[in-house]
Input
Amino acid sequence: ANFQKLNIPKRLLDILFKQHDDLYIDPFECDKLCGGEGLVNLMLFFFENYNLFDVFLIKPKVVRGYFEEVMKGYLDNPYHNKVHAQDVAQTCNFLLSKCKFIEIGQLDEQDIACVLIAGAIHDYGHPGLTNAFLINSRNELALTYNDQSVLEMFHPSQCFKIAWGNQKVNIFENLQFHKYRRIRESIILMVLSTDMAHHASELAVTNSRIAAPDFEPNGKDKQRLMDLIVHSSDVSNPTKSYEIYKQWTEKVLTEFWQQGDKERDLGLPISYLCNRYTTNMAEAQVGFIDYVVKPTFACVLGFLPAYEPFFQNLDKNKAKWQELIEYYKQQLASIQPK
Ligand code: 8BR
Ligand code: ZN
Ligand code: ZN
Output
């Protein structure tokens, strides 16, 4: 592999060489080291690392151009921004390499590309508002996608249009017809699986597949597991170090509370977690860990035993938030409006 030709900042390369399959990469620091272009540089690193330039029969210049366009399409939301995209792509890579999904699913280079690209594009153009808000406010996007996985339909749709709208950045251009069809289908399925509306039902099916006698992680169940890799990376904040997790939590709630303010102004129902006067951040995290993140990663553990040492982070972080519930209760009592 020749990473020199890619113009990746030296300090990022040092981190990536040492720990590109590490759960503890600080996504905020990575992005800073790249002058705000962490997503682009990370994807170039993965393309070289996994030989994906040859899979796509494409030059680094095209790949750089494509992910620059993708990166530019991420808005400066508190949470759903390009650093979140970079973080999800990096976490996908951690599950692929360090946790050995590549071996267990016998992923080929094409599968690896699909997972990492899905991670990078999965929230493209996110407006910082949830599907529920877009539907309730009769937003153009909800009208376009008939209220069905509105954002998750929008993100990949836009990202394929970027490629086909400009030959200079079309990473899919040189793929054979059938290869392209398979790659496109796989990426779209993974991004659709990040709709939280599908979380409980899909997790139930995946759990039963893992327990089934004919479970085939490297065959008929592979795509389902790839979907779970991207979805679990999307909700992986509570599995990271508390310092990084706390930053994400403040960001996601800042975004939710901005939405809640809008809902209040518009006379719409204020969505779950979106009321800044009643939402206890610590309590919300305990619930998020218990009801969403822990069951998700318990399922991951069911087919990736190498994840085991990291699973305990969830309980450690949950205990920290539990200690803070009282503190946030008092905070809330002091900021009641009117
Ligand atoms: P989205 O990124 O698609 O919005 O899915 C993540 C969901 O998990 C959010 O809708 C939010 O409800 C919830 N969530 C909570 Br609660 N805390 C979170 C956190 N610290 N990081 C990410 N998501 C969180
Ligand atoms: Zn999303
Ligand atoms: Zn996301």
Notes: Residues 194, 196, 234-235, 237, 248-249, 252, 273, 284-285, 288 surround 8-bromo-adenosine-5'-monophosphate (ligand 1) (CB under 6 Å). The radius of gyration is 20 Å. The chain has a mean pLDDT of 96.
